[in-house]
Amino acid sequence: MLATIPASVLAGITGHPVSVEVHVSAGLPTFTVVGLPDAACREARDRVRAALLSSGVDWPPGRITVNLAPSGLRKEGPGLDLAIAMGVMVADEQLPAEVLANVAFLAELGLDGRLRSVPGVLPQIRCLEAAAVVVAPESAAEAALANGPVVRAPSTLRELVSALRGEECWPDPPLAGSENRLDEGADLADVRGQHMARLGLEVAAAGGHHLLMIGPPGAGKTMLARRLPGLLPPLDETTAIEVTMVHSAAGLDLPASGLIRRGPWQAPHHSASMISLVGGGSQTLRPGAISCAHGGVLFLDEMGEFAPQALDALRQPLEEGVIRVNRAAAVASFPARFLLVGAMNPCPCGELGQPGMCRCTPVARLRYARRLSGPLLDRFDLRIHVGRPEVSDLFDAPPGESSAEVRERVDRARAIARDRGVASNSELKDDALDQLAPLDPEAKNLLGRAIAEGRLTARGFQRIRRVALTLADLAEQPPPLNGMVVAQALFMRTEPVTVAHDPWRNANDRR
């Protein structure tokens, strides 16, 4: 007899519907899976057999053939286990086909018959047209976000079979927990001094501007960066769904509510490869760190130690907010609109600018500066020098503003940006700046001199206008942009690493 069970598989962060066709016939006992299954799919034979026997279900003694249609789509992972088990029972006439009509199944099976969660449940359910879907209890909250089919979440295969036969009622799905909250310990009030760096964080959060912090070891760059997510507003509904889908496809933990409401934080180690940053793989395409940071912050600590090729791979996603991964066997697009924050030392030893402290040779400084290419450096709207705090700041200075106080100003600036039709000023198109951010004569003269002196590119010119617009929004100043905010935006973008030596400028001059 033949049975067809609806299911789905994951490709990138996109779900694709799959029909699991199971045929049971007389003959020598065999179990064959066809339809481009990977190793995990082929191993379903042993998992499904053990799970059925552990649940008190007879295993058919004949020939079993499983076809995963469409046959041209590669099937990966153990998420088809439950659908295969249901197909075997229907094809062997142990379950009537009517009770499974318009019901999809997405779960891995343990040898004891327990249902286990699989990555990417939300995007897989969104591609289905079934009236109900059966998932593992751990995936129930995520499955409910699809706002489509009825979610069933039995704990074991025995519970599922009893409910389908009408012997027991369907178990209630687990209650969704509360949404994830901000880490109250990472407060900006913990930072003493560093007034320019604190302003850089506020401007970055308010306008979505990329930030590079350069300074000696122990100056507080990482401490500052960790407090940036606490300044960002909650995600809107569309972005929250996208972030949840990416994290689910990547196999990352989701909050108890199932939906990620706060911007994520990703901080990969400087030994990370290019593929781990941008995503991909040889056959299984998975989102990288930049996609897992979508809607939040990507922090690259010790940025000068990253491979230059990996850093340059970020240039296109920084402009477009999406990364397109092309491989010979598959193509995938991942969202990648994130706030990039970099932190690095001014030289390999970190003491450049301290009299008599730097031990680096000029060649070593130049090689270190070349780790960041000119095009990548040009995409940083804010470049802040973070010096070591003064002794008076550490012992006698009062606490600075808390994250909650700064977040109020950030929320007001973001509200002004939403009135312009964008989530933040960094997303404004160039043609919209002429209307929304006109320049007064003084501001035009300042920018004209910066371009004529080679300190500002055409891309940098537009980015300066966006930063100046954010500064005006924080100060609640209506357009046109005056010379003061433009001068401040220029200073925050072009401030040298040290007065004595600017490795970025020297490196560019020698190219």
Strand numbers in spatial order across the main sheet: 11-14-17-10-18
- N→C terminal distance: 72 Å
Number of helices: 22
Query: Beta-sheet strand percentage?
Result: 15-25%
Largest sheet: 5 strands, parallel
| Broad shape | elongated
Helicity range of the residues? 25-40%
Q: Give me the count of strands.
A: 18
Structural class: alpha/beta
Please mark out the parts with pLDDT under 50 across 5 or more consecutive residues, or reply none. 180-184, 496-511
Rg, Å, rounded: 28 Å
Mean pLDDT: 89
Give the structure's gist in a few sentences.
By secondary structure, the protein is an alpha/beta fold.
Task: Tell me what you see in this structure.
- Helix 7 runs parallel beside helix 17, helix 14 packs across helix 22 and helix 19 packs parallel to helix 21.
- By secondary structure, the chain is of the alpha/beta class.
- The strands form six sheets. A five-stranded parallel β-sheet has the order 11-14-17-10-18.
- Helix 5 links the parallel strand 8 and strand 9.
- It contains 22 helices and 18 strands.
- It starts with a strand and ends with a helix.
